[in-house]
Amino acid sequence: MNFLDAAYQASNYAFAFVVMLGVLIFVHELGHFMAAKACGIRVLKFSLGFGSPVGIGRFRMRWVRGHTEYVVGWIPLGGFVKMLGETPDPETASELAAHPTETLDSKPLWQKLIVIFAGAGNEFAAARGDLHREFSRWDFRNPIRSSGKSRPTHPRPSRACGRTTA
Q1: Of 44, 61, 66, 149, whose CB has the highest number of CB atoms within 10 Å?
Q2: Which of 29, 91, 102, 134 is catalytic?
Q3: Is 29 a catalytic residue?
Q4: Beta strands 62-65 and 68-83: pairing type?
């Protein structure tokens, strides 16, 4: 294997790693996001990746829908969900005063815990679903059929030999 083949293979592994890490981060942050929305907490920003939004010029992977800004950043090594009242911020002081019931601090402890643990819970649920999908393909009673292919047929003994088929 020459240098170019090794570099190509390494780049394939690096790309696959970044894609899988991005999926894990998205699932994790989506758990926090959905739990916050379900508990009535205002989500200010949902970001997948860090840094400035991906794009060139005015065409950026950034959009606003409702009260939430959605961003896909250049550095795909993490993400975050910024909620109202999560940190003291002078930018959100007016919004904090206008919507005091939609802050993270205004919610009871059990709702805060749900939001905190929802990221890991969502990852667990996704992993459980993946395992269920994989194991549902297997046929433990007949290992030959576990690959999804039909079992090879064997010729039945003929009646001419004096045997009966079962």
Answers
A1: 44
A2: 29
A3: yes
A4: antiparallel
For every residue of 62-78, DSSP letters joined together read: EEEETTEEEEEEEEEEE
Beta strands in the chain (DSSP E): 43-53, 55-56, 59-60, 62-65, 68-83
The answer to whether the Cα torsion of 58, 62, 68, 74 is positive or negative is negative
Spatial neighbors of 98 by CB under 8 A, at least 6 apart, are: none
pLDDT score, position 32:
95
Of 29, 119, 134, 45, the C-alpha closest to 82 is 45
Q: Mean pLDDT of residues grouped by 10 in the chain (166 residues)?
A: 87 91 93 95 92 84 91 90 85 79 90 94 91 78 57 53 54
